[in-house]
Amino acid sequence: MAKMRWVIVASVLIMLAISSLFPCSAGAAKKLFIGGSMALTGAYAEDVAAILAAFEDYVQYVNEAKRLAPWRNETFPSDITLEMLWRDDELKPAKAMSIYEELKSKGMLVFRVSGLPQAMALKDRLNEDSMGATCMAAGPILLKPPQTIFTYYPIYTDDLAAIADWFKEKWNETRKPRVAYLTADNALGKAIEAPEMGAYLKKAGYEFAGSQYVPLVPTSPPTTQLMWLKQNKVDLALGAMVNPGSQPTIKEAVRLGMGPQLEYRITFGMATPSHLPVFAPAMGELGNGFVVAGGFPPLDDTSTPGIKFCNDLQQKLRPDKRVTHIMYVGGMLEAMIQVEALRLALQEAPFEKLTRADVLKHGFYKIKSLDTGGLSSMPLTYGPGKIEGVDMVRVDQLQKGKIVKLGVWPCHHLYEH
Amino acid sequence: MALRSHTFHENYGQDMAIFRTKLHWGILLVFLIFLLACPLFLSDRMLTLMTMIGIAIISVHGLNILTGYCGQISIGHVGFMAVGAYVSAILTAKLGWSFWTALPCAAMAAGIVGLIFGLPSLKIRGFYLIMATIAAHFIIIWFILQLQNLTGGADGLAVPKPKIGSIVLKSKISYFYLVMTFTCLATLVAKNIVRTRAGRAFVAIRDNDLAAEVMGISLWSYKLQAFFIGCVYAGVAGALLVHYYGFASVDQFPFMDSVWYLGMLIVGGSNITGPILGAVSLKLLDELVTIVGPVLSAAVAAQAAASLALITRGLVIILFLIFEPRGLDHRWGMIKAYYRLWPFSHEE
Question: pTM to 2 decimals?
Answer without folding.
Answer: 0.83
